[in-house]
């Protein structure tokens, strides 16, 4: 019996971060459904339970209702909030980008926090840009 595709060893000099090697066929259904890599190394582990999606995606999903709460608390978004939303994406981009491009390894807590910020940021950016475009089209 051989290892599933993607799990076979690589020469040590050509090793890549595990996230790139986690095969799609081994992802959980929730992970596949939302487009998460579902790499067990990056999923939350609480006691003996392991989350089916990674810590960053849990953070993203937790950030969405916070952005909706901001909508009710602050009113409709505008371009200024869209810019703030774009800035909220930067920590996740840096953390994830550094992992993908170097030997840097983040932590579950850092992935979760940057995911929450990115979740809020995504909706603020989308809402702000949409509101600005609608304002430009309809006056
Ligand atoms: Zn994920």
The chain-level mean pLDDT equals 86
Percentage beta strand: 5-15%
Bound ions, cofactors and other small molecules, one mention each = zinc ion
From the N-terminal CA to the C-terminal CA, the straight-line distance is: 66 Å
- Supply Rg: 18 Å
Helicity range = 55-70%
Shape estimate: elongated
Explain the overall architecture:
There is one protein chain. The protein is mostly helical. It has a domain of 85 residues. The protein is 60% helix and 7% strand. The protein has a two-stranded antiparallel ribbon. Helix 3 crosses helix 5 and helix 4 runs antiparallel to helix 5. The N terminus is likely disordered.
Produce the secondary structure layout.
Elements: H1 18-21, H2 29-34, E1 43-46, E2 49-54, H3 55-74, H4 79-101, H5 108-138
Antiparallel strand pairs: 1-2
List keywords for this structure.
139 residues; 7% strand; two-stranded antiparallel ribbon; binds zinc ion; mainly alpha; 5 helices; elongated; 60% helix
């Amino acid at each position: 019996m051989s290892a599933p595709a993607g799990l076979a060893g690589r020469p040590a000099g050509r090793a890549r971060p595990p996230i790139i090697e986690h095969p799609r066929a081994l992802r959980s259904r929730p992970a596949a459904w939302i487009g998460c890599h579902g790499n067990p190394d990056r999923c939350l582990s609480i006691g003996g339970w392991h989350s089916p999606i990674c810590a960053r995606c849990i953070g993203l999903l937790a950030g969405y209702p916070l952005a909706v709460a901001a909508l009710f608390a602050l009113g409709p978004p505008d371009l200024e909030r869209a810019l703030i939303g774009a800035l909220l994406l930067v920590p996740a981009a840096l953390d994830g980008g550094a992992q993908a491009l170097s030997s840097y390894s983040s932590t579950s807590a850092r992935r979760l926090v940057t995911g929450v910020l990115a979740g809020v940021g995504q909706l603020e950016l989308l809402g702000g840009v949409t509101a600005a475009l609608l304002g430009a089209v309809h006056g």
